[in-house]
Amino acid sequence: MITLNAMGEIRVSIIGFGNVTNTLIKGLEYYMTDKKSNNLGIWHDKVGGYSINDIKIVSIFDVDADKVGKLVTCNDSSIKINAGMLIDQPPPYWNNNIVSVSKDELLSMLKDSRPDIVVNLISSSMDRSSYAYAECSLACNSSFINTTPTTLVSNTDISKRFKDNGLILVGDDLMSQFGGTVFHRIILRMMHKRGLVVKDSYQLDVGGSSDTRNTLQEHIRAKKRSIKTSSINTELPYEFNLAAGTTEYTEFLDGDRVSYYWIYSEGFMRSPIKIDITMRSNDASNACNVLLDVIRAVKYAMDVKDVSLADIISAYGFKSPPSQVSVIDAQDEFERIFVK
Question: Is residue 244 a contact partner of residue 229, using CB atoms and an 8 Å limit?
Answer without folding.
Answer: yes
